[in-house]
Amino acid sequence: MRKRIGALLAALVLLTGCGAGSGIAVVEEAPEAEAEMVKYVALTFDDGPSPRCTPRLLDGLQELGARATFFVVGCQVVKDPDIVQRMAAEGHQVGNHSYDHAALNQLTSRQALEDLEKNDALLRQLLGDGDYWVRPPYGLLAEAEAAALTVPLVNWSVDTEDWRTKDSGKILDVIYRCTEDGDIVLLHDRYQNTVDAVLAAVAHLQEQGYVFVTVAELLALKGVAAEPGVTYRRA
Ligand SMILES: [Zn+2]
Predict the structure, then answer these.
(1) pLDDT value at residue 29
(2) How far does the centroid of ligand 1 lie from the alpha carbon of residue 141, in Å?
(3) Contact (CB, 8 A) for 83 and 107
(4) How far is CA 5 from the centre of its chain?
(5) Smallest Cα–Cα separation from 191: which of 19, 44, 48?
(6) Ligand 1 centroid to 30 CA: how many Å?
(7) Which residues crowd ion ligand 1, with CB under 5 Å?
(8) Of 22, 59, 191, 209, whose CB is crowded by the most CB atoms within 10 A?
(9) Of 7 and 57, which is predicted with more confidence?
(10) Percent of the chain predicted with pLDDT > 90
(11) How far apart are CA 178 and CA 156, in angstroms?
(12) pLDDT digits (tens, 9 = 90+) for 12-70
């Protein structure tokens, strides 16, 4: 019997700690021309802006021609509104990560929605009308409240755990092992080690055909029509 090894490669993805918490081994088939495909990734930065870290990150992203999404916290925005204006002016997507960074799922429905509305109003005042997509703190918001929003919600498919390790090498390792076409990567622009790791990773991955876009761009490029009240984790 003659066995023909076709163009399809079977890749066993082992338990690498990638993704948003599942530990299931899956078999994937890679398309033939994968090496030549353009791969799109959305880097997302929570909890900023940070006057120590965000400007250097913006400088680096601008130099590399990479765009990202910043889920900012209202109580930080009021301290450094100019940095948030710079994000928007340089083509990044600005999103709503609540005003006070409370665990919204532990508040009453009304309190949670009021907190998100307070930050939304602040962003409108600062940047003008627009859709400020929501990432709830810790990625947690009750379904009923999510459904009440007029914008899409964004969680993530790659968790770098940068806030825990604060180690550039470990952050780079997760990005390199786990990031694939269509991923949404969770980061925080409050740590210098995160900025170091991200700028190194972007430069390296661009050489491999990765293009860094905003979450809205990523979904649009993948033909996903983003809907209000729906949570997106990857495209
Ligand atoms: Zn956060």
Answers:
(1) 56
(2) 13
(3) no
(4) 37
(5) 48
(6) 34
(7) 46-47, 137
(8) 191
(9) 57
(10) 84
(11) 12
(12) 334 445 765 444 555 555 555 555 689 999 999 999 999 999 999 999 999 999 999 99
Kindly give, in sequence order, each residue whose CB lies less than 8 Å from that of residue 177, ignoring residues fewer than 6 positions away. 16, 18
Encoded tokens for 102: 């409370």
> 3-class secondary structure for the chain?
CCCCCCCCEEEEECCCCCCCCCCCCEEEEECCCHHHCCEEEEEEEECCCCCCCHHHHHHHHHHHCCCCEEEECHHHHCCCHHHHHHHHHCCCEEEECCCCCCCHHHCCHHHHHHHHHHHHHHHHHHHCCCCCCECCHHHCCCHHHHHCCCCCEECCCEECCHHHHCCHHHHHHHHHHHCCCCEEEEEECCCHHHHHHHHHHHHHHHHCCEEECCHHHHHHHCCCCCCCCCEECEC
Which residue's structure tokens are 């994968």? Answer: 34
Domains, the chain, with CATH or none: 37-232 (3.20.20.370)
The pLDDT tens digits for 146-200 are 999 999 999 999 999 999 999 999 999 999 999 999 999 999 999 999 999 999 9
204: annotated active-site residue: no
Q: Which residues pair with 28 in a beta bridge?
A: 11
Catalytic annotation on 46?
yes
Which residue's structure tokens are 């925005």? Answer: 77
